[in-house]
Queue: 2 jobs
Job 1
Amino acid sequence: MRHYLQFKDFTRDEYEYLFERAKKLKARLKAGQLYQPFVGRVLGMIFEKSSTRTRVSFEAGMAQFGGHAMFMQSKDTQLGRGEPIEDVSKVISRMVDIVMVRTFEQSIIERFAENSQVPVINGLTNEYHPCQIMADIFTYIEHRGPITGKTVAWIGDSNNVSRTWLQAAKIFDFKLNLACPRGYEMTVLDGETYGKDHFEQFHDPYTAARNADIVTTDVSTSMGYERETLQRKKDFINYKVSEKVMLQAKADAVFMHCLPAHRGEEVDPEVIDGAQSIVWDEAENRMHTQKALIEYLLLGRVED
Ligand code: CP
Ligand code: NVA
């Protein structure tokens, strides 16, 4: 049994399979063909933080597969009243076939997975957001081809999403340029070392964006850090993806954002709503790639 708790849980070869499979599942869905390998199967989803895309993509994907997705907010369950995560995992995993968890510390999902009888998927933690970057790379490949050898410029916070881009840089052999204010530099948590071929930190967004193939960003205050919002708004004021920042990147560069976005804060409306933006495909592809992921965790490699 496999879990998907961080991006480096899968090899490049596995991602290449998943991308091929997601492409096939997407084409099949667009052609109106029913594909229901999971009739009678249940995906349990535990949310300790808010969500639009993650909930809808998993729920719609599981329905398309003929199965059911059960939405649980921790505040409405006994988890919100202090039931130990180990007990919650032991109980839920006896009744469902696969679980997705969105929570705070990575250690919480790791404890859940250790006690689970079924595969567990990370739907975002404070540290990582692997499903997001799987969808992002699939989307880049759809638009521009292989990501290997390319440069991703991240302008903004060293958070769960950028930390996942970093793991992906090593696996797919591309470079992450990260520009953030002083005091917000990336801390590597996975024990890996990242050489200059894969990772460079900057404080100047224009330098980080130079010759980039992807320019991307995220909110300056992630969920769970709301108390820091005012300070962060001030500290990140010069870390916005503007048209001027986009001009530093390659002419065919794309703009990506995991969403939700704050126009005028981390990105200007002209960029996110402009011709280089691929954010809507990026959001939709969460569903197609996660369907490939669910199928892989439950059935392994599928030929048809
Ligand atoms: N990008 C993303 O995970 O969005 P939600 O918070 O809406 O799920
Ligand atoms: N970094 C953001 C991503 C939201 C999808 C957060 O954790 O709130």
Job 2
Amino acid sequence: MKRILVTGATGQIGSELVPVLRDKYGSDNVVAAGHRRKPEDEFIDSGPYETIETTDAESISALVKKYRIDTIYHLAALLSAKAEENPQLAWHINMNGLQTVLEVARHHHCALFFPSSIGAFGPSTPPDNTPQVTLQRPNTLYGITKVAGELLCDYYFKKYDVDARGVRFPGLISYKTLPGGGTTDYAVEIFYAAVKNEPYRCFLKEGTRLDMMYMPDAIRAAIELMEADARILTHRNAYNITAMSFTPDQLYASIKKELPGFSMTYEVDPLRQAIADSWPHKMDDSAARAEWGWQPEYDIESMTKDMIEKLRKEVSNVT
Ligand code: SER
């Protein structure tokens, strides 16, 4: 039986991963851990919730002992645009946090999931069909922590036998918790505006093509990778995975098919545009497909339909 700790549990990925893990492994076997932010009631009601500081090894070790944890999903991190606002803090949380959790995993023999990102690539990376193994020279602090994180996880696996595994997530689209300060956030914000019948001002240029994925696919990918037989994994830290690749104008068109009255204009944010311009358009995820059977379910059309349906319910619940 798996006993799981999820750091960053109140964030964009964590708030959707925790309920799925609790359904699968039992509520008491999944400890949600967050930093400062007051959790939603459902976290408190549906299983254990703890407050942690991801760079405090002692308190994380104590949690791991208390709940006899054997697997950690380490999600606590700053996203790309936020990291550019405060690079020192981003290094501290993203890098020192990861190293702390890897040390805990080493001492307590835990498996570890680490989310890398399209941000681990940079302007010299081939942007189309970006290979699994290629040039990785990102020019953002976020990207630097992701490449270093991938390498550190590999190092802990080879040197200390820590069963660390990871994927390079594309932009993630979800309706439950807003991402905080990412470059791909437009693809989430646009839906909030659309279902509220408000116009949207997109902060990326219309032709900016990026890899994207709907959250249910992202959650399934993380769990499937952690469930995979270790013997079949070659590129364990970290696998390219993608589900769709689109530009803001294509997403706008997809939403307009469902909501013809929706309107979008552009007001480009130079910081986030520069970050987006340094990332791949479309990753080659054949290693993940071949090694552990990765297969996305949602494309732009089915994601758009589901997002609008789910977000309408969410928005009507809070208004
Ligand atoms: N969605 C993230 C960001 O935009 C990329 O991994 O920062």
